[in-house]
Amino acid sequence: MTVKLLKNLYFRLPILIKLLTSVLILMTAFGILIHYVEPIQFPTIFDGIWWAFVTAATVGYGDYVPLTTTGRIVAIALILSGGGIIAFYISTISAATIQREQNLEQGKIPYRGINHFIIIGWNERTRQLIEHYIEKFPALQIVLIDRTLDRVSYNEYPIHFIKGDATEDDILSMANIRMAQKVLITGDTSKLEKLADTWTILATLAIRGNNQDVFIVAEIFTKIQIENAIRAGANTIIRPNDFLSTLFFHELSHMRTATPFEDILHILKQKQFSHMKLPAELENSTFKDASLLLMSQGQLLLGYVRDGEYVIHPKKNQHLKPDDILLSLIDW
Hey, what long-range contacts does 51-55 have (CB within 8 A, 24 or more apart)? Predict the structure, then answer.
């Protein structure tokens, strides 16, 4: 029963462990054998084992050499058997390394780090954002979750890629969502805006269900879905449509011959409008107090949304209410 149990345990081991175990057993057996065949030439068992490894690995230091015919027959048997198993072990390690690199590029390897940023969805904005972070914060660890990409080369983008649907718990677990610091959910521009927002809200619910404390930034296309995204657990809502509409209005209504649209894009290319539920510590505070607090966090407070109405640049002593949604300009 014991032998059968050990046999079953052996066959359940990973291939590398099984090969290493076989190498150790075989080299030890040949080391013991050569010690007893030629005790003068190999005074200790360890000397025999050393000779077995050096010979099977084709290193051949020549410090221990069998002199008798029987000893040389043992050496031939070692070369024919041990050399092959060590070569197979080394080639298996090489193949496993290559396979792991391929799995990493194909998004099949779980992420084990902590305090990382998770970006969901690959598009041109995501690419620019990743390049921006790599340039300014090279130590920041970024995990990208996307279901459309087939592979991401680490040499081109030093990020950890996870292929899959961010609404699934298994995919979020692979990205180590429980230890993440922030999450950005980008909208899928290939879908209808309503469908894209619905998926974003589902992803927000899944993320919040796995991590109650992670900071979630969600991109929402339609105004009507902002409240739903906040209820789902998003801390900040980004609406690219607001930003673009403002720029279009500025361009169409501007009468100068210059190109203010391009000027604004140059200045604000790393900015986006953000909708954020009023933090508890700012309830009943003035617009001025909220502006100073957000400014210290790198955000420019523009106004707020109350009862579905946008209030832009209110009076500085205007008090904020618990259900207000802050409208600010943040780094993208």
Answer: 52/26, 52/27, 52/28, 52/78, 52/82, 53/27, 55/79, 55/82, 55/83
